[in-house]
Specification:
about 260 residues; mainly alpha; 9 helices; about 80% helix
Length: about 260
Amino acid sequence: MPKRRPPTGELLAARIAGQTEVLAGLEPLVRADAPDAVHRMRVACRRLRSALREYGGAEPAGVSGELGRLGRALGAARDAEVLGAELTAAARELPAECEPELIAAEVARWAEQRVAGARPEVLAALDSEWYRVLLGALGELAVRPPDGAGLAPYPELARTAERRVARRLADARGRAGADRDAALHRARKAAKRARYLGETAGAAGLTARMKAVQDALGVHQDAVVARQALRELARTGHAFAYGVLYARQLSRAEAAERDLPRL
C-alpha cells in the first residue's frame, strides 16, 4: 500500500524550516568565501521562495521579495564564477591558430575581476539591516508557517506546475530571436519551481522530469549569457578566437532549441 503523503501545508512548513536552517548555516561559509557556499545559499533562497509562493496570499508580506533581493546579490558572483569556468575550458579547446592558452588566460582574468567586483555586494547584503530582518522573519516562519489549511492537495499543485512549464515552452516555440531566448528562460524558471515542488513532496518523478527540462533549458540560457560575455571580450582584441567561441555557443543554443518538441 503506497505511503500517504502529508497535507500540502505540512510539506511546505517542513521545507521552510529545513531551508531556513540551511541558509542561516551557510552565512559564515559565504563570508569566508568557502567553495560553493555562494551557490548553495542562492539555491536555498530559491527553494524558500518556491515554497512560500505555493501559499499564495497567505505568504507574509515582503519575505519572498527580500529572498529575491538576497538571491540577486549572490547571483552576480556565482554567475561570473560559472561563466568564467565554462569559457576558460572552452577556450582551451580552440584550434592552435587561435592561441588557446592565451585566450584561456585572458578569459580567466576577466572572470576573476568579475567575481572580485561582485564580492563586496555579497558582503554588503550579509551586513545589512534588511538581511537581519529577513533572517528573523524566516525564523518565525520556521516555527509558525502560514496556515496551509486552504492549500490545494499536492497532486493538483503538481499538475498546475507542469502545465505552467508546458505553456511557457509552447509560447517560446512561437517566438524568435531575443524574445525566444527570454521565453525559454521563463520556461526554465517555471521548471525549476516545479522541480522544487517535487523535492518538497518527495516526489521523485516530478523532480526528475523537471530537472531534465531545467538542465536542457539551462544549456540554452548559458549559451545566451556566454555570447553576451564573448561580445564584450572580443572588444579587447583576438576577435577571431572569440568569434570561434561565439559560433560554438550559437550551436549549443540551437541544439537545445531542437530539443524543444521532446521537452
